[in-house]
Amino acid sequence: NAGVMQNPRHLVRRRGQEARLRCSPMKGHSHVYWYRQLPEEGLKFMVYLQKENIIDESGMPKERFSAEFPKEGPSILRIQQVVRGDSAAYFCASSPTGTITDTQYFGPGTRLTVL
Amino acid sequence: DAKTTQPNSMESNEEEPVHLPCNHSTISGTDYIHWYRQLPSQGPEYVIHGLTSNVNNRMASLAIAEDRKSSTLILHRATLRDAAVYYCILSASGTYKYIFGTGTRLKVLA
Question: Would the pLDDT of A50 be above 90?
Answer without folding.
Answer: yes
